[in-house]
Amino acid sequence: MRCDQAGDERAPVSDDGRRGFLKCAAGIAGVAAATGLGGQAAAAAAADRSASGLRENGGLPDKVPFHGRHQAGILTPQQLFAGFVGFDVMAESREALTGLFQKLTTRCQVLTDGVKPLDEQVAAERPTPDSLTITLGVGASLFDDRFGLSGHKPRHLKAMPAFPDDRLEPARCHGDLSLQICAQHPDAIVHVLRDLARETHGLLRPRWRADAFLNPSRPSGSPRTFIGFKDGIVNPDTGSSREMNRLMWVTPPCGEPDWALGGSYQVLRLIRFHIEKWDKVPVARQEQIFGRRKASGAPLDGKQENDPPRYRDDPHGRKIPLDSHIRLANPRTEKTDRSRFLRRSYNYDQGFDQSGRMDLGLVFCGYQQNPERQFATVQRRLRHEPLAKFITPLGGGYFFILPGVRDADDWFGSGLLKKT
């Protein structure tokens, strides 16, 4: 989405005093990174607490388990930094594709275990996992006629459509694979990309890349986007297996291929903020557009950010406008409850464009059981909302996150490639 569900869908953990962004200056050559030197300015005000302290306060483990029914990096509390990459697969046969997935499995396990990549082996520091997670998804284009997979595509997987307020740039959309890399330091993202580029040489071609980070949760509570409002205050209950099976994971009643059970759909959106235009809007009007107080994050009819908006007591929108962002995104009715999904978004800063305007925004990341029932339904409710004048979705894509790697004998996509 755009800033979609901002203030209405929250990542599992928001830590106080999060550090800002230092540009990931390396990576796979030739990819347009949605980050820049301007991000260094955001780091200065938030560098007063260490990443280890944030882990202690937020419950984020130093080492996140790699094996499991579901991939890490979905329900994992958000790390400080993230990298998102769309790839095209260059493998020319089913066997080569299988080898690629097996190689990715091996390298991802090694890296998340904390083993230093080759470029760091001479360093004196001890290896550290850095709370690293690497999450792999597949795009609709992987299921063409190259690998004999066309009859095994997940039911709702397709190229992300352009919604009415979008201006999608083809070079920043879609891909055969998606990779989400999250860690407590930005160099870890770069090390992963360098390692995978080295180990999968000739089998993957980067299509687009976006490096991103979390802003501090000043003064407390949920972190903020560059629009100044708290980004996400309510998410589905990730501790409830019933809630997760209803809204997140692919289960047998979904009618998906057997190999997809335990997976989830990922929606990525690269959303630029027109910050100079937004900054001219009086704060009172900004609050009407969002439906929340800018300082506290509370709904306009509440006092605390976690107070639920009382829409039934305000049927005509006198307190919270009917076209406000939070009211459209999540009307909180029985009918719209099944359109909720998990948000795990990050900010980006790419410096300035050729016109001298700041190029910054949001890498929206959402996980769900069915993107048509959930993301697309919410997106249609937000069509031409007042906030749309100040943000522009430019890229991203729909992906299916593969089920987790169960044990040392398993590998990414094994169910898909072994049984088809």
TrEMBL record:
The keyword Lyase is annotated on this UniProt entry: yes
Listed Pfam families: Dyp_perox_C, Dyp_perox_N
Enzyme Commission code(s) on record: 1.11.1.-
Limits of the Dyp-type peroxidase N-terminal domain: 71-213
Cofactor: heme b
Co-factor: note: Binds 1 heme b (iron(II)-protoporphyrin IX) group non-covalently per subunit.
Recorded catalytic activity of this chain's protein: heme b + 2 H(+) = protoporphyrin IX + Fe(2+)
Record-stated family: Belongs to the DyP-type peroxidase family.
Name the record gives this protein: Deferrochelatase
